[in-house]
């Protein structure tokens, strides 16, 4: 039984698709697409050298293009602040007098203990303050 070259390339494409599914490595998918392109070349009557060149060129081009796009998207991910990092820079309302030794504020809907960044400064109830940092369970405000 004589099998045409394009069938062998399709078998190779399927063979490369299996590790793609099992390992989730996209490079195998790009090699599989290269094998499909080589199968098309073989079906159109291209020689063995042309088939191998098409396989290599398509596979390498796909890897280069997809990897550069993936790197660009990885670098542009938005940084989401969470936890105490999300509280820095927010405004709060003073509930009890806040000075260098302590006080209470309402921050993000919760009541926090607070102290001023500058020990000589104080804030009275109702005033708005900005959170500079969180020190343990205490908001440092100014």
String of helices and strands: HHHHEEEEE
Tell me the overall shape.
rod-shaped
Radius of gyration: 31 Å
Helix percentage range: 40-55%
Amino- and carboxy-terminal Cα gap: 85 Å
Uncertain segments: none
Q: What do the pLDDT scores average to?
A: 90
Largest sheet: 5 strands, mixed, barrel
Query: Which strand order spans the largest sheet, edge to edge or round the barrel?
Result: 1-2-3-5-4
Strand content: 15-25%
Task: Give the SSE map.
Blueprint (H helix, E strand, L loop, with lengths): L4 H19 L2 H18 L4 H28 L8 H4 L3 E9 L2 E6 L2 E7 L11 E8 L2 E4 L1
Parallel strand pairs: 3-5
Antiparallel strand pairs: 1-2, 1-4, 2-3, 4-5
Task: Describe the model.
With 142 residues, the protein is of the alpha+beta class. It is built from four helices and five strands. The protein has a five-stranded mixed β-barrel with strand order 1-2-3-5-4. α1 runs antiparallel to α2 and α2 (26-43) packs antiparallel against α3 (48-75). The chain is rod-shaped, with a radius of gyration of 31 Å.
Q: What attributes characterize this protein structure?
A:
single chain, alpha+beta, 49% helix, 142 residues, 4 helices, five-stranded mixed β-barrel
Condensed summary:
This protein has four helices and five strands. With 142 residues, it is an alpha+beta fold. The termini are far apart.
